[in-house]
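A quick word before the example. In earlier lectures we treated sequence and structure as two separate objects. From today on, think of them as two lines of the same record. Here is Membrane protein written that way.
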Amino acid sequence: MVCVKVQPVSEVRDPIPASNSRLKKPQTALITGGLMIAFILVIYLFATQAIVQPILLVLGLLLGYTLFHARFGFTSAFRRFMSVGNGEAIRSHMVMLAVAVTLFAPILAYGYSFFGAEVSGYVSPVGVSLLVGAFIFGIGMQLGGGCASGTLYAVGGGRSVMFVTLVFFIIGSTIGAMHLPFWTDDLPSFGTISLATSTGLGYGGAWLLSIILFGIITWITFIVERKKQPPKMATVPSAKGWKRILRGSWPLFAAAIVLAVLNALTLMTRGTPWGITSGFALWGSKIAQLLGVDVASWGYWQGENAQSLQASIFADSTTVLNFGVLLGAFIASAAGGLFKFTSLNMKNVTASVIGGLLMGYGARLAFGCNIGAYFGGIASFSLHGYIWGILALGGTFIALYLRPLFGLSVPKSKDSFC
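And the structure line, produced from the sequence above:
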């Protein structure tokens, strides 16, 4: 057994670092530019695409704004809990998931939607593909500096190294799409398992079971914290009063509720929950196709996916959401006076390359990332969402020993961790 002796330290919410100084002045020119780009995109989508696309862009803007505004992380939440036992952010996840299942249950049970789309959640198979994909995604997000949503909102905030992560995330997703039939068709799988429809519980029973599970996880985080006495998360500068809505930082629990509501609205708008990484696979595959690769022959692009490969990227709802998240995070960072390109070095670039590839490949194997599989899967009452979270935590633990090799920090406590 290997034990590491560490010293106490606090850690701010990441992937965007915050200083302890006063809130900075808003970058008005950048805010104006971001809003103009968003407005032009909305008009373009209204003119060229179905009505849901401009609405999804607005929802993406709100998602990106919320993620950056609260520094709402999945990567850092897993890392803090696995390294020092700080469960503050994990508890905010449980609030988000509790609100999400409460909203998703009636939507999925009765098929509520705004535009008559058939509604379905993210219920994916449980098999070797999921186990391997979620585990390597957990390692990748700790090396890459952010998960799928974290990568997008960090890029929107100007964190330079995350542009590297995003590029290799796209490459990894494309390779994963090419290899996916091997993982899903040739290796063992138990198929899809829904707590609502596969167990006889129905959506009401599955909702109650989910709330109990979230309560148990929350209770476990308190037990771990009492044992390890971890440092608290550092505060982020914020405006006071009503100005806090637009500038500064939101409490994690407030952001958790907003994200759950926005995910439910996304489900009712396009018929499926919020997702991110299928858009990366599409972008990479289209680029590969331009380079002469016979992408259309891949199993991933057969059947329902074939049309997406031939259509405009603006016809892809996940792509539109991703663009919205990037713009929303950019506007939020400018509103806080925080947009600034950061420096690069060989170690963090190398970590981003490896992390991006692992996340991209892992997301395809695991049928989604921290958003599509973990958030969307659990909200949809899919067993694969819970398994994704457990395996990603395992990957995070391994990554704690890899991060220092690339000059990346690890949260520390006054106790040894093994």
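Notice the following. The chain has 15 helices and two strands. We will return to this example when we discuss secondary structure assignment.
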